[in-house]
Write the structure tokens for this entry.
Amino acid sequence: MSLNAPVVAEAAPVRVAGSYRRMASLFFANRLAVTGLVILAVLLLFCFLGPLIHHTDQTHTNLTGATLAPGTQGHLLGTDDVGHDVLGRLMIGGQTSLEIGIAAGLLATLIGTIWGAVSGYAGGWVDAVMMRVVDAGIAIPALFLLLVTATILRPTVPVQILIIGCVSWLVPARLVRAEALSLRSRDYVQAMKAMGGSHHRAVLRHIIPNAIGTVVVNATFQVADAILLIAYVSFLGLGVPPPKTDWGGMLSKGISYTYDGYWWLIFPAGIAIVLVVCAFNAIGDGLRDSFEVRLEGR
Amino acid sequence: MTRFLAKRFGQAVVVIFFVTVIVFLLLHSVPGGPAHGILGPKASPQAIAEFNRVHGFDKSLLQQYWAYLDELFHGDLGQSYTLNQSVASLIGQRIPKTLVLTGMSTLLALVIAIPLGVWQARRRKGLTDYAVTTVVFVGYATPVFFLALVLVIVFTQKLPILPAQAPQTQSIAGLFADSRALILPVLAGTFATVAAFSRYMRSAVLDNLAEDYVRTARAKGASERRVVWLHIMRNSLTPIIAMLGYYLPVLFSGALVIESVFNYPGMGLLFWNAAQTSDYPILLGAVLVIALATVIGSLLADVLQAFVDPRVRGAIK
Amino acid sequence: MSGPALEIENLAVSFGRGRDTVRAVEGVSLAVAPGEVVAVVGESGSGKSVTSLSTLGLLPPTATTTGTVRVGGVDVMTLDGPGLRAVRGAEVAMVFQEPMTALNPAFTVGWQVAEALRLHIADLSKKQALDRAAELLEMVGIRDARRRLGQFPHELSGGLRQRVVIAMAIACEPKILIADEATTALDVTVQAEILDLLRDLRARFGMAMLVITHNMGVVADIADRVVVMYQGKVVEQAPVEDLFARPKADYTKRLLAAVPRLAPAEDRTRDASAEEALALENLTVEFRGGVRAVDDLSLTIAQGEILGLVGESGSGKSTVGRVAIGLLKPTSGTVRLLGEPLTGAKGRALRRLRRRCGIVFQDPASSLDPRMTVGDCVAEPLVINGVGDRTDRVVALLESVELDPAVRRRHPHELSGGQRQRVGIARALALDPRLVIADEPTSALDVSVQAAVLEMFLELQERLGFACLFITHDLAVVGRVSDRVAVMNAGRLVEAGPREEVLFSSREEYTRRLVTSAPVPDPVEQRRRREERHRL
């Protein structure tokens, strides 16, 4: 499980060297990261192009053809309890999981970065108040907050993105604030001030570009976490309503059938989640390693 | 020292204050107003009006918030309308069981993760090393419920040696009486956190390995084992405590999922059932209590760090 | 015992494999007799540290080593794990550069010194070890040793911590003590005391010592023989007086020529311009927690004059520099820049004043934004202040600091430390300032690079005629550069006056102690100064 905390703990200082080419070559030398990238690409193709090749009916139920084992009647992964083809469902579910996950992850990163940068650069009581708000948000476990909001609002896809984004921005805020705090006392920021530069320029031209490394790395972890989060929420029954679904929702259906041995209702979706989260984590680790530059002394 | 404690305590109070604001706002964003949230969706207009008047919901938002805070101080979290009990007593019943579950899995996770993380930090390339790293990596990415389902399938169906449901008692003693039924829930919780903890340990040890004092210890003639297990571990206590503090909210989230999969009679299950039935008093009361527990927990973690780390002690003086 | 304490024969160390191999050390041979002090001197990249680490087998696993390193007759290269551990600390001991991080912050001083003993002496009870630890602490000059045993490292100053490390090193009476830049991070007065201590220990124990340093003054102070290294090879070995008087190798000659010397010289004549560039009056800067970084300081700098501000760490000199350029607000007192008040200036007036000064920072690694090109860095002041014709100006600036203008398309990390400092100077001069604050501008550079950068800086000052507040801890540099010198101690101004007067005929005790503590690169002269210092 990777909701929030571990990413806070692993915030390593990330400095970006001026050469994108160098970073790219470091990244592509990392086999795990490249594997992650490949897996992600395959999954994206599978989910978004798959249905064009493998046509299945994902809206109408077909109770006579329910819970068929894999291989029967041309259903590669069998059918679920209302007759939907599982392979097709996996693709549709993947679309939802990935859409919400990526959008929510990016939204969380955007809000968190701005909040953290302002807080860290401002310092003083502004920083203290802004961080107490973040602490309060972090104190409430994300899942609990999500469930409460899910009972209040109708869980459509845009709403889910908004809610997850609004719950997840806290961690990037903390990270970016720590970066901003350390960056603002760097000599080159002081030099800029000495030559008459404004706060505005400091944040836009010096702080954010030098924090980009942390932000980008964290964004990948945020997406991974968002995908997990939406899976949890759907698993607990409060995700997008049918006939749409996502991987977590597929698993939640599957739980009622564990004792019937219908493994194809459980494993495909579960493995898909594990794969995509692993992929994003691997990419994030690879990005972090390639961003980290030890400036040579003398 | 007291200045530090006072400052930290003050911060915690501010945070709790913000939490109550958030919960209060949530209460007031329930469709139909808090009356609907508390009386239920089928309440009649008269009941609602009466309710509003009695509870002062016709007053200004600020006055309501004040009244809300007042109720909280008196330990009144409202009344559940599906279970006909006060929320406070419900939570009071359930929370010890959740603490037992999370306590046991956290302890077990620490016992496994600390040596594992240290081992990962010191690794030399090898097949076992790659295998372990992969397992940890995958464990980190696996949703708890999937893991729990797999455990259930493996241990109750394929090899039917463990019961699939947690002990269904009301008392703590009862939990331990049927201890075989505790194994799977605790195991699920442990696996989930071992991955995260060991990753953290690994980076803490790696950071320390690069420190100058390690070089000094080696130059004195200390063995590598001594350096890692005595010198580095002593310095890693503080980050571990900090990590536990950060991890509290996650632990509770995990408990929620595990309890719903295994039907474990704790806070998480209470919460989930309440989410299904839109029982807002329970939902909001639980959120508040858990947030409070988290804030207090991380305050304790900070204070503990201050006692354990001589540098923090010194800086405070 | 007979035979050398340390004997290195044909040592070669390389890192990495294949195309990326870096040869750090090649064909190095040297020997240290018992009771002898040998200094290994060189700049960064000379391989001196790698050589010393090889004696303890402390090189990283990526290193490939050939040759022999014999400690008391035993070849360290052939030893395995337990064998190496028996040698480390007991036969060879090492003291490293950074005292602030050398000790484990989680254990008491007494525990750590006792550990040094218990790792090698069997059957030593805890109490016996602690008793011996207290004795060792006293031997290294730590007063109140019993109380110190129970203290943690963070409670001790840098100098005290280094003494503790030395105590740990001599605990088992090793045959040879290696000091790798052991005094580089210390204040000059503390450095003098530590060097005295090392000399004392050598006399007492007859211990051999290998002193690694880049500071020729330290070499002149403590060494019997000197080994000069350059780019991984030994270029010259000689007894200390011979080396300084008659250097043979080209590199040695260049190195000795580049070292700034603290010696009376002709006073530079400057136009006694009455106009002030900078005036500080009753300046006090207090930080949170009641720490007074600057205490009631008054100072003036005339136009076109270079004032050298010296002090040790914690003296407040950097704080003064920052206040002078408006980066810090003083708690009380006034600052006047070129006749106009800086304190209390706001908005456009403040910006106008700021344009007329520039600042050069110490650390080449953090003074330039790693994400900007060199050209952008230099152009930034021009951009902020709306100056046109930027490209031409940037090219002109880079040329004036003796850099190829093509460098403007590169990024800071692609440049060496010396080149980065030149860029920093170019940036500071972009707006043609009347006052330049130079905060330790060459302290992080190699000796030879430092000399070149200082020369260039002085030439620019001569040509452009700006006033300069030159902040440094290095007295020789101050002597080279300044017209007038001001000395600070713990936030207060000790004295200020013409260079010759302050440096060579001061009546202030602190100044004299400071000046006599600074080692000069001349063994005979250094001995005389040492005696003078001991008399103080």
